[in-house]
Design goal:
- It is built from two helices and two strands; from the N terminus they run E-E-H-H.
- It is mainly alpha-helical.
- Strands 1-2 form a two-stranded antiparallel sheet.
- The protein is elongated.
């Protein structure tokens, strides 16, 4: 596997919203940070 921090300099498209984001986030969460936040908010509304 590549080192995650090295791929951080390149952009990748989020499979959910198509926005250009860090590939690390796609690997970690499966989508960009915005989708991650939205999903977290929908899953745990009490946190917000
Ligand atoms: Zn997204």
């Amino acid at each position: 596997m590549r080192q995650a921090q090295e791929t951080n300099s390149e952009a990748a498209a989020c499979p959910e919203c198509g926005v250009q984001t860090s590939p690390v986030q796609l690997v970690t969460w499966g989508h960009c940070r915005a989708c991650r936040t939205a999903d977290s908010r929908a899953t745990r509304p009490l946190r917000w």
